[in-house]
Amino acid sequence: MRKQPHAVVIGAGIGGLSAAIGLHESGWNVTVLERAAALEPVGAGIGLAPNGRRALDVLGLGEQVRGLAAWQGDGGMRAQNGRWLVRTTAAETEAAYGGSLVMLHRATLVDLLVAALPEGALRTGTRAAVTDPGAAGRRAVVTTDEGDSGADLVVGADGIDSAVRRALFPDHPRPAYAGFTAWRFVVPAPDVPFTPHETWGRGGVWGTQPLKDGRVYAYGTARVPEGGRAPDGEKAELERRFGHWHDPIPRLIAEVRAEDVLRNDVRHLPAPLARHHRGRVVLIGDAAHAMTPSLGQGGNQAIEDAVVLAHHAAPHGDLAAGLAAYGAARVPRTSEIVRRAARASRVTHLTAAPLVALRDAFVSTAVRVAPGAVLRSFTSLTDWHPPQATPIAQVAPVAPVASADGHPAPAAPH
Predict the structure, then answer these.
(1) What DSSP designation does 357 have?
(2) Quick one: which H or E segment has residue 310?
(3) Buried b (16+ CB within 10 A) or exposed e, 116-131
(4) pLDDT digits (tens, 9 = 90+) for 8-53
(5) CA–CA–CA angle 260, 261, 266 (5° rounding)
(6) How many Å apart are CA 163 and CA 172, to the nearest integer?
(7) Number of H helices, E strands in the chain
(8) I need a labelling partner for 256 at 20 to 30 A (CA). Which of 27, 48, 149, 307 fits?
(9) Which residues contact 218 (CB under 8 A, 6 or more apart)?
């Protein structure tokens, strides 16, 4: 019996790990190459919308994630002075979106994904590059410090500064600064309860969201020049920018340790790729369609990518046709979400006081005139359903087959 075709995933972020699980369950022999020495618990929170959770259902992880939902009561959107622009409940959100919103720490999600990988699939401390994308009759070549190895499929999941994307499409414009930077941190929940909210201010946004483990994920964004750093530390910068905003924002800033505040300029790929693959190499997540966080869809789209890829790139099928079908399904959707996220970023980061007042008045009026309209405007993002009718693991396994070039596929590198 011939060996299983071998898929190499470059990058062990949320998208890469999800793709590895999906491909493994579909019948691929999978190796994940991650340049970091270890998957440290870095980052902060991630919001999983119903579309992302449906994708996780396909990977067999949806119920575990649903159990981490912390938001049960009221929530909504506020103005900088604390006035509520939109008030809603978890039940109303679930009805509008077709499911609840789950906020959790990125490290928690990564741990769930790593636990679902086949044993020995993840190799950390390994830098990898695509030196030949391959073709219908030729395997792709992945080069590491240990040398070259062939792969029947390569998944570029190496983030916004993707070296895989540059290898495939060297003339495509590089990621661009979106015009604002983001601060993020996680702290223990304050003694005085608060209502989850996102606040739109003048030139910036703040969000305060509870986590299931009793902590709070907080984030702030502001329109500032690219590459800036506060000379006296980022906690001090948060105090200057947000310390006069409504409660509980000042309390949360006071609680965080200065060294626990993360600051990152927000970048995106405003010019969409015309396709997400070349030869036997395919891009997913930020490598394919980096977007601003304004719609909370970056991680969700990466997981969608993973399960759609696993559906179309069957180990026993025509890989070229499968990757073309993957692109046909993903390029239009992700390109539109990138555009919508960029538009939303411009609205939330208005700096002129009259425009900020007009924006807030418009949102408040829209809610009064058409209750639920704001929530329904996001439905086209969250009503997505995966192509798989059942979790991949419930599908009858296929017999291993030869690699696409007609030769036996090698085992995963050790």
Answers:
(1) H
(2) helix 298-312
(3) bbeeebbbeebebbbe
(4) 999 999 999 999 999 999 999 999 999 999 887 666 889 999 999 9
(5) 140
(6) 12
(7) 14, 18
(8) 48
(9) 184, 185, 186, 187, 206, 207, 208, 209, 249, 252, 253, 256
